[in-house]
Structure formats: C-alpha cells, structure tokens
Amino acid sequence: MPYRSYQQVRAALLAGREIALLDVREEDPHAQAHPLFAANFPYGRIEIDAYTKLPSRDAPIVVLDDGEGLALPSALKLHQLGYTNVALLDGGVAGWRDAGGELFRDVNVPSKSFGELVEHERHTPSLSAPEVKALIDQGENIVILDARRYDEYQTMSIPGSISVPGAELALRVRELAPDPATRIIVNCAGRTRSIIGTQSLINAGVPNPVSALRNGTIGWTLAEQQLEHGQSRSYPPASEANRQTAARDVRALADRAGVKRLQPSQLSELHADRVRTNYFFDIRSPGEYGDGRLPHFRSAPGGQLVQETEQFAPVRGARIVLADSDGVRANLTAHWLKQMNNDVYVVDGLQAADFSVTGPWQDALPPQPEVEEISADTLGDWLSAAPQQVALLDFTSGVNYQKRHIPGAWFALRSQLAAALAQLPEGVERYVLTCGSSLLARYVAADLRTLTKLPILVLTGGTAAWVAAGKPVETGATRLASPLIDRYRRPYEGTDNRAEAMQAYLDWEFGLVAQLGRDGTHGFKVI
User: Fold this and answer.
1) Could you tell me if 479 and 79 are in contact, meaning their C-beta atoms sit under 8 angstroms apart?
2) Which of 21, 24, 88, 523 has the smallest C-beta neighbourhood within 10 Å, fewest atoms?
3) CA 106 to mean position of chain CA atoms
4) Distance of CA 37 to the CA centre of its chain
5) Under a CB-based contact definition with an 8 Å cutoff, are residues 19 and 86 in contact?
6) Residue 477 contacts by C-beta under 8 Å, 6 or more apart in sequence?
7) Burial 22-58 (b: 16+ CB within 10 A, else e)
8) pTM of the entire structure?
9) How many angstroms from the chain centroid is the CA of residue 193?
10) Would you tell me how many other CB atoms lie within 10 Å of the CB of residue 372?
11) What are the helix (H) ranges across 404-511?
C-alpha cells in the first residue's frame, strides 16, 4: 500500500485537485485532533458509506488514523471495494503534526471555521442573549428564526422562535417578517449556522435589520435564561410573489459568487462521468424530497450541507451539483459552497414534473456476505433457555443502543472487535449479530469469522424486527463490550451540558480564524 506525505496532500489541496482525506477512527477520537479537511469515515461503516460518499472509484484517497491500526485494513477494504487510488497518510495524525500541519478539534471544522471567517470579514451583526431577552420582554417588533434542523429545534429553542432551517431562510423570511421594520434575529445552538443564516439574509438583500443571536442557545444558557422545549412552530408556504423576489435576488448573489449553471438535459451525461467525482444534492426539505425527487440526487437540506460539507462530500475538489424547485434554496446554498472553494453548479429550469422519483433513497452497497440467519422467535427461545451460551452483539450506534436494545445484547464496535470479544463472559457457544436492520451486522460477520471458530448467526431484520415482533427491549448502557466512542458529544446538544464545556466550545470557535491562517490550505474567499 503506497504512502502519501503531508507535503503531497497539502499540494493537492492547494492546487484544488480531487483528494479524499479519510480519518477512519471513530468520531470521538477523530474530534480530538485531525487535519482540516479530514472527513470522519469510520472503518466500521466503510461498506455502508463508500459507494455513496466516494462515487468515483478512481478518486485519490488518503487514509489516516493515529496509530490505532485501522488505516491499513481500511485502505485494503477500499481496494477490495474497487477503489484504484488508495494510499496511507505517512505517519498518520502524528506525522501530519510533525511535518508542520495544523490539527483541529471538534467536528465539521471546515464549515465552522468558514463561519467564523465570514463573521470576521463581514462583521456580521449580532446581539447578546440578554439583549434579545430584553427585546422579547419589551414586546418589540422582532421575529426569531431558528436555523437548525427541526429535531434540534424541538429539543430546545429560544422562547417564541420559529424553526426555519438555514436554506429556507431567504425563501420564507418575507412571510414571517412582511414589515421591513421588523428586526430579524437568527439563532442556532452555537455560532456557525446563526452567522451563516444572518449573513444569508443580508447578502440576499432582505430589507429588514438582521442580527445573529450571539452564541446561540449556548449563550442563552450561559446567561442563565430559560429555553423552551418541545416546540413545533415552523415556517408557512412562500407566496409566489415572495418566491420570485427571493429567486431574483439570490440568483444574482450566486452569480456574483461565481456559481456555474447546468440544464436538466446535461444531468444524465454528468452522472455517467467516471473521470471526475460528482455529487448531486437536493437542497429542499426532507418532506419535499420524500414527495418526489430527481434521479440520482441525494437529500441534503442546504443549511446542513453548508454545516457538514466534509461529511456530505468528502472528496475535496469534486464537482457539486445542487437542485431545488424554486430557484432560491439551491442558489443560496451554492453561493456559500463556492466561497468555501468548491466547484459548484445549480440546475436551472427544473419543472415540477422533473421531481418524479418516489420512494426512499437507496444507498449503493457492495454485495452482502452470505450469512446464516436466525429469526427473532428462535433467538428469544435461545435467550430464555440458555442465555449464557449466546453472545448477542449489537453493532448499532452507541446512541441507538442506549435508546433500545435486545435484553442481554452487548454494544460492540467493529473497529474494536477483538477487544470486544475479550470482554464477553466465558461459556459462549455461538455468536448472534444485530444492529438496527442487521445490514451492518452482515458485513461484520465476515470480520468475526477471522477471530473465532464458533457459529456466527445474524438476526433477520435486526433489532427492528425484534421490536416489530412485540418482544421486550432494554435501555441504557447496560453491557458495553466496547467504549461509547463512536459519537463525539457536542457541547451544544442536549439539555444537560456543563457550563464550562459550553464556554470552552465558544472559546475554541473564536480561535478558528487564526487556525485557518496557520493551516493555509482552505482557499476560502468571502464575498
């Protein structure tokens, strides 16, 4: 397996050539330290994610870890899946640092650092949490728009705020603030989406005064102000007159940023292109996407695409094609992606009839290994008769495992499979594997065969089938054969965050512009 040096990777980034820098560790170790454009691509999910996130089999791929021993098996697995240009990062994370490379903490760092750069360059206006609360208490003419995902908004929200995920802002704002004198305040959990949302409205020429809620729900909490929970306020439909106004203004904005154009007739040729990596994203809401979509277009609501760019499109230098049904959301999203140094196109001239594909998106997957299966009823009988003889391993996410799992199931990470087996009690005579649907469990079975001669079975339909059969479940971290490191706990999610962790997160964000300067590979240009 060849190696690529820090200097070679840096040269590719600076030249804008295609390169996927993949950190194959679990998300929590990845979040502790990684290069700016290293996308988290855990070893345990390679078969699930590869063909969707790495659509070109010939794209240059550089795999890294920090000495955990996951980079080589990940690279070999990618090679087995048909990828022709796979290499290892020389020295991994430590090698990057030792060669003079900048390392970043947290997740979605390209987007978060870009948001800080936007505020730094454009002096995006903001109000503190006490200032916004005073406006609320005084009954001032304001509207508060929450730019996060709807599920995040439902968990906790600013009192009186309305859920308007980022890409929807320019399309919906005139319905929510028809009076140009109404002050618009945009919030998120921390900083990035409120900065980008606020600047989106300013860039799009909205006549109202617009400000970000400085530091979002974190700032609100640190000011010891109460949040709401379980709210369901959302945006109304956009009138045709307001849609046309927004479409005209945002189109001009995208043109100024240098966004390129495509016609629907060109899409089939692009999809057949095997020379470049092409990503096709539908920027509309998940509900609209479910009602009908274009062929080959994945759902990527625009606010989240800008927030999680390296996860949606891990191949840096790829071509990104955006579509919507209104001429607003795709152009608004595209103008940000272009400033983030991406090669971005918007599809013009789409009609309602073009969004004709129905049914859920299906990820392309490699052939699933042949496995011996077991029904939920048979597994239930085994667990009742001789539970000590059955090692039931659950490879779902740690979050989902804690929400529900089959009684007696052990949480296990594929990336730490051998260590997980060592945690199991003696007397095991067979292994049964599950996850939400057992899709991942099927791929894990092949790994497990190299570690044991005991029988290996996969639960048909996974834990979902067990639940559908009316069988009981447990909750909580009851049996951990592997540590819960597959997800990094964001300091801005949930309702039980420590004040010092939230403040440390804000302090980290404030330092991102300086880190960008030291790194020097981003090519961001704020208009």
Assistant:
1) no
2) 523
3) 13
4) 14
5) no
6) 398, 401, 402, 411, 484
7) bbbbbbbbbbebbbbbbbbbbbbbbbbbbbebbbbbe
8) 0.94
9) 14
10) 11
11) 417-422, 439-449, 462-468, 499-510
List strand residue ranges (DSSP E) for 283-403, in order.
298-299, 315-316, 319-323, 343-347, 372-374, 390-394
Task: Identify the bridge partners of residue 234 per DSSP, sorted by sequence position.
Answer: 163
- Sheet containing strand 343-347, edge to edge, reads 260-262, 343-347, 319-323, 278-282, 298-299
Distance CA 505, CA 490 (A): 9
Crossing angle of helices 329-339 and 240-257, rounded to 10°: 20
Report which of 143, 174, 136 is spatially closest to residue 161, judged by C-alpha positions. Answer: 143
Token pair of 294 as six digits: 């274009």
* Residue showing tokens 């010092």: 500
The rounded distance, in Å, linking the Cα atoms of 187 and 198 is 8
- Per-residue pLDDT tens listing for the chain (527 residues): 999 999 999 999 999 999 999 999 999 999 999 999 999 999 999 999 999 999 999 999 999 999 999 999 999 999 999 999 999 999 999 999 999 999 999 999 999 999 999 999 999 999 999 999 999 999 999 999 999 999 999 999 999 999 999 999 999 999 999 999 999 999 999 899 999 999 999 999 999 999 999 999 999 999 999 999 999 999 999 999 999 999 999 999 999 999 999 999 999 999 998 889 999 999 999 999 999 999 999 999 988 999 999 999 999 999 999 999 999 999 999 999 999 999 999 999 999 999 999 998 999 999 999 999 999 999 999 999 999 999 999 999 999 999 999 999 999 999 999 999 999 999 999 999 999 999 999 999 999 999 999 999 999 999 999 999 999 999 999 999 999 999 998 876 666 667 888 888 888 888 999 999 999 999 999 99
DSSP secondary structure code for residue 62 in this structure? E
Return the HEC string of 114-127.
Answer: HHHHHHHHHCCCEE
Tokens at 244, concatenated: 């046309």
Q: At what angle do helices 46-53 and 71-80 cross, to 10 degrees?
A: 60
CA atoms within 13 A on the CB side of 186: 32
Please, what sign has the CA dihedral across residues 349, 239, 308, 443?
negative
**Rg of the chain (C-alpha set):** 24
Instruction: Label residue 79 exposed, middle or buried (CB < 10 Å: 0-12, 13-18, 19+).
Output: middle
Least Cα distance to 488 among 469, 501, 476 occurs for 501
Sign of CA dihedral 337, 338, 343, 344: positive
The answer to whether 141 touches 182, Cβ cutoff 8 Å, is yes
CA distances from 84 to 35, 43, 57, 319 (A): 23, 18, 6, 19
